[in-house]
Amino acid sequence: MSQPVATTFFDLLDRYDAILLDAYGVLVDLSGALPGADAWIAELNRRGKPYWLASNTAARLPESAARRYQGFGLAIPAERILSSGMLLKPCFEAHGLVGKRIRVLGPEDSRRYAELAGGTVVEAGAEFDALVLADQAGFPFLESVDEVLSALIDKFDAGDVVPMILPNPDLVYPTGRGCGITSGAVAVMLEAALRQRYPGRPGLEFIRLGKPWPGLFEAAVRLAGSRNVVMVGDQLDTDIVGATRFGIDSALVPSVLTGNRRALGGVEPTYVLDMAKRQ
């Protein structure tokens, strides 16, 4: 197994037909754009280099995310954003959920993703056919998690099959002040509670859509018209492992999430970016 090559973001631009970028920890955190992110985006736009944000978020529609990034000084148009929320449509079609009642945990844009996918979003306390755990915010957390868990137990006790869908499998994300939990961590908690209630019973796992699963990579490669693309990300278990499994190169942005680690389960990035030369 070869060691990752130290390089800079700008060196990647001549090597690949398209660039895929994670958002949190690579371009932004909760407080705004990270140092040098504006230079990265400006150079991509100046060259006309094909690029897409391949983000695990299902909390913001591309148009909402683009406005937010532009407010941070990053000139990223909506058509350059691929989010895991966009994967709900093929998921609903594959699992027969078009027209079904969907309970969504997440902000308003998360509900809109479910509607655009063909679901009928229902309010808290209403009967539902499937659960979409889209985000860790945008709803009263403890009350909603308790309500959903109780409803799932009632349904499983009755022998119902209830698809549970997780667009964002991330467990943590960089906040700029440290780390925060994501919807992926909430899903793990619900799965653990259901396994305790129904030991050995199948069908208690969420359907995971975002990185490291292939959906976002497939969409990006299709848009690029090439597999000669590189994934730039800060999470080993989603960005780097996902890209490697999919068969494309990856570049690690060292962050609070990786610490000194440069590999996970024997999987290493193709490159490690020299962040001292970010600008």
Please describe the structure with a list of short key phrases separated by commas or semicolons:
single chain; 279 residues; alpha/beta; Rossmann fold; 9 helices; 16 strands
Which H/E pattern describes the elements? Answer: EHEEEHEHEHEHEEHEEEHEHEHEE
User: Poorly predicted ranges (pLDDT <50, ≥5 residues)?
Assistant: none
Query: How confident overall, as mean pLDDT?
Result: 94
* Cα-atom radius of gyration: 19 Å
Envelope shape = globular
Domain count: the total is 2
Our count of helices gives 9
Distance between the termini: 30 Å
- The quaternary organization reads as single chain
What structural class is derived from the secondary structure elements? alpha/beta
What CATH calls the topology of the largest domain is: Rossmann fold
